[in-house]
Amino acid sequence: MSSLSRTDVARMVDHTLLKPEATPEQVAALVAEARQLGVLAVCVSPSQLPLEDTGDLVVAAVAGFPSGAHKSEVKAAEAARAVADGAQEIDMVIDLSLVLTGRYDACEAEIRAVREAVPAPTVLKVIIESAALTDDQIIAACRAAEAAGADFVKTSTGFHPAGGASVRAVEVMASTVGGRLGVKASGGIRDAATAAAMIEAGATRLGLSGSAAVLDGFAD
């Protein structure tokens, strides 16, 4: 962990508030804290957009969150509206049932529908809910995301009962995308040791709600 500086890790962080009861005042406090911490981005629910006083922060919003059990055209419309409201990145949740039943072409098609709704330079991250999947299913979901033109694959919403990010899942995801896509570890990362383990496993972005506590474990 000594090779990772606080500043370097901060520039990998999406400072996140996705609780359904979050108020505009709490979101404004999130933005202010994010600027103070020097993180890369904030990630919020689309209903909280547009954000104010973001400075040079990247603004991310979710689509199809948290279940993923939405029609692809609904996810696409939600993503497009979020971008119109100022989001520069979209974190979409896949329809897990498509992966669990081996309908990988349909999974790819729904990701592509969102990609077409929010073309580059918007960054598209695809949440595969890795804790609910086998290694083979993780691989297939990552391949579908890559084929559909996504920029990142992401472990978790942080809301699924199966759990959040794991080192094993990040390793499998990173191996599958081979550096062609980013890998975002999110869900249950609450200390510096866990964050460092995710980065060592291949994570290039971290989704954190308790960013300050994690970053405090890294030296400047």
UniProtKB/TrEMBL annotation:
It is found in: Cytoplasm. Its EC number is 4.1.2.4. The keyword Ribosomal protein does not apply. It catalyses: 2-deoxy-D-ribose 5-phosphate = D-glyceraldehyde 3-phosphate + acetaldehyde. It comes from the Bacteria. SUPFAM superfamilies: Aldolase. This is Deoxyribose-phosphate aldolase. It comes from Georgenia faecalis.
